[in-house]
Structures are given as structure tokens and as C-alpha cells.
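Dear colleague,

Thank you for sharing your sequence with our group. We've completed the structure prediction you requested, and as agreed, I am returning the results in plain text so they can be pasted directly into your records. Please verify that the sequence below matches your submission; if there's any discrepancy, let me know and we will rerun it promptly.
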Amino acid sequence: MRKSSLSLLFAGALALAGSASAQDTQATAPASTPAPAAKSPLTQAGMDFTFLFDWYASKNFNDPDSKFNQLHNYDFRGNSNHISLGKMTVERGPAPIGFRLDVGFGETLNWNSSTERSPEGFRYFQQAYISIKPKSWHGVEVDVGKFNTSVGAEVIESNANYNYSRSLLFAWAAPYYHTGIRTTIPVGHFTGGFQVLQGWNSVYDNNSGKTFAFTGAYAWKKVTWNHAYLVGPEKSHTNDGLRHLYDTNVVFTPTDKVTGYVEVAYGQDNNIGGGSSKFGGVTGAIQYRPTGKTAFAARTGYFNDPAGFSTGTVQHINEVTLTADYKIQSWLLARGEFRNDWSNKPFFDQGHGTFGKIQPTLLIGFVAYFAPKK
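Please find the predicted C-alpha cells below.
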């Protein structure tokens, strides 16, 4: 039944694209009407096409035996280089029905789906959903399918964040994506939402229960305050032991050149038969753009894992990250980054079978991004 539903989802998206293409082919301007301006090659038949390619090289000064940067997300490889993400996005705005499809490859999508129970091929579809937004609904939108999580201040695509690497909260406190139904309800300066989901990072649920999400955002001129609360059973083959997660972040833009955010997250995974595992922390970042081509960002964060639920070790971790951007071309971004993580436990692989409390890394990344001009 679930496979049939997902097949219908993709079939519906393709049908919409075909319908739009047919309509554009049939429409012809009268001879006396000036020819319309040529469309961007990234916008065709009412659909927008976006392309992204993300590559990085990293130096881990610990020289770990594992060759991995521990606790990092997407910049996993230490003393090596790798493709983090390559993808194509096809999107048609809901007027009243639209869709979005993100298809890609790379370590990012492999990691996001590493606990997924569905067939291997689903990991290549970062997002795949249909959107419904009739005019009579006064701005209310409903999305059905697979979509990125609403939790957190950072996103999966590195060029859309202040820093190349992701914060500890992004990596260890929140899910990456969901499958289900997502609603967006605007009311003045406030936008609320309610979601019914298959769980954390899953297309096929691992139990018979559902996860529910409540979201809200209030926007002032230079400040946006976001909230997300998730609750539901996440253990396999049982609906006992609910997992709760609350995340709130404030994004501020005091000037045209300065922007930043502060984020706090708290989670609790209830054990079967009593007790719970708690996790959470705080992070903050700021970015300064002196010119249209350059930017500098700093981030600091703290993550507490008192039961070892997220990282596998009872510990608390801090991180400091410094990032410099240079836009080589309008479509090509270069980033250099220094990051240091430190734990209260000898957690980090320092080579030759030894472990220490710090992990300094240096990274250079290149992100190519082609999108329609808005």
C-alpha cells in the first residue's frame, strides 16, 4: 500500500509536468503581437531547474586512523577530498497544484538515509512532494510526500548556510527529512503549521504510530522567531517510548551586511518501562558581508549528550568554526574553514590507537550552483 502511494506521488508529478508542457506548446501569440522574451534555460514550461555540485577537501590535524572527521556532518573525510552533494531540482509552484523533486548523489544523501528501511533507491531522492495551494485557501498550502525537516536554523545545502560544516545541533539533535503531510498556514506576521509524519528520516515507518510536528514562525522587519516541536514513537516495532524534540531559533538581520542566529534544542527519548535519554544544546552564528563577493562567518556551539543517546558516548562537546567565502563567479562559491571541536572525554581519534579531547580541522570547499533568476 505504501509503495503504491509513493508511485502515485511520482506519477502525479510527472503528469503535472506533462500537462504544463502541452499547454505551453498549444499557446501561440497572434502575428501582430511582439515575440515574448526568451525564457531562461533554467525555466521551462512553468518549471524551474536548479543544479548544485558540492566538493570539499579536509585536513584533520589529529591524523585519525579512521580517516574521518568525527561528529561532523557531510564533511566526513579527514585528510582527503570527496563529493559532498550533487543534485538537480525540478520545481513548479502550486497554482493551485505544483511539485518539487530533488534527485542527487553523494555522501550527504547516503548519510541522511543510513538508517532508512526503504529500498536503496529512495536515498537518491532528497525531496519528492506535491503541493496544493488553491486561491480560495487564502495562502494555506499542503505538501504531500518526502521533504526536508522544518527543525533548525541550518539546511542540507551548504551554500545556504553561513558555514560550510554543520553545527552540532544540526548533526546530533535533529532529523534530516520526513515523509508525510505538511501544512503551512499564514496568519498576518505569524505562519503556523501542522504535520503528520512517518517518523525521523524514514519513508517507511518502523512502527504503527505516527510522529506529529507543530511549527510556527513570527516575522518582524529584521527578526524572525521560529519554533518546531516533534513528538512520536521512533523505536522499531513498538509505539511505546515517545521521542520529544523542541527547537527554537531567532534569525536577525540588523544591517544589509550583517546577519546571524541563535538556536536552542532540547530532546528526550523515553525508554520503554520508564526513564529517558535526554540531549540538546545551543548554537549561534553571525555572518558579515563586506562586499558582494566576500563574507566572513563565525559559529560556536555546545551539545550535551548525558546518556550517550546521540553520539554513543556520555559527553558534552563544544565547537568553534570560522569560515571565509569568496564568490569566484555568480554561480561558483569557494569557502575556507577552520573548526575545532573539544569534548570533556577522550573521544576523538588521534591516530596510532590513541584518543584525545580535541579535533582541529581545516577545509576548503567549492559549491557550483545554477538557479533561475528571481
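Summary note from our side: The chain has three helices and 19 strands.

Kind regards,
the structure core
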